[in-house]
Amino acid sequence: MRNLAFAVLASAIVAGCSSSTPKTAEPQQPTAQSTAMHAQANLASASGSLVSGRVEFDPMGDGVHLTGTIGGLQPNSVHGIHVHEKGDCSAADASSAGGHFNPAGSAHGRASSTTHHAGDMDNITAGADGTAAISIHLAGVTLGGGAANDIANRALVVHAAADDYTTQPSGNSGARVACGVIRITQ
Questions:
Q1: For residue 40, what are the contacts with CB-CB under 8 A and spacing of at least 6?
Q2: What pLDDT digit, counting tens, does each position of 102-130 carry?
């Protein structure tokens, strides 16, 4: 009888501590941080240059933001930089990377103009030490997922000269002096 009274009392205490309606776990929405892709391109010299560097890629707003450092450039020089269509930097002159990334078939131009390749960016400038700090927003592209405008597994190429933004199809920016494949790291 004591055991039965104890069991009834324990049940009453447990019932009083719990809510009357059972709660179901609400599904957790993924946070931006948990779903965000990150990529990196390790630039190796091409065409006999000494140019190299590392550029990081992170989705941001309407595109992808690039940050990093490129060294081995001539002091105070200006260079074209583009995403190219193929993620292949195996050729000594980086020609294996193909042309500029251009899924919409647009004309080449300045990134801020209405007509330009998806991989077109504004020129970069090296400082007195031959190093260029990169902070570029590439609008209208994605990072990962396989969409037509996805830049993952494509090449980032630095050119020997400045892009003139008008010469078709490449901006007359000269030899490819560094190349790196844009690889997803998380």
A1: 54, 55, 56, 57, 182, 183, 185
A2: 898 888 888 887 878 888 899 999 999 99
Whether pTM exceeds 0.90: no
Is 2 assigned a catalytic role?
no
Domain hosting 138: range is: 36-184
Q: Is 23 among the domain residues?
A: no
Question: Is 8 within the bounds of a domain?
Answer: no
Catalytic (active site) residue 120: yes
Q: Assess whether 108 carries a catalytic annotation.
A: yes
Q: Which of 79, 116, 154, 159 is catalytic?
A: 159
Taking the C-alpha atoms of residue 84 and residue 102, their distance in angstroms, rounded to an integer, is: 8
Which CATH number belongs to the domain containing residue 76 in this structure? Answer: 2.60.40.200
Catalytic choice (120, 150, 154, 163): 120
Whether 183 is a known active-site residue: answer: no
Is residue 18 assigned to a domain? no
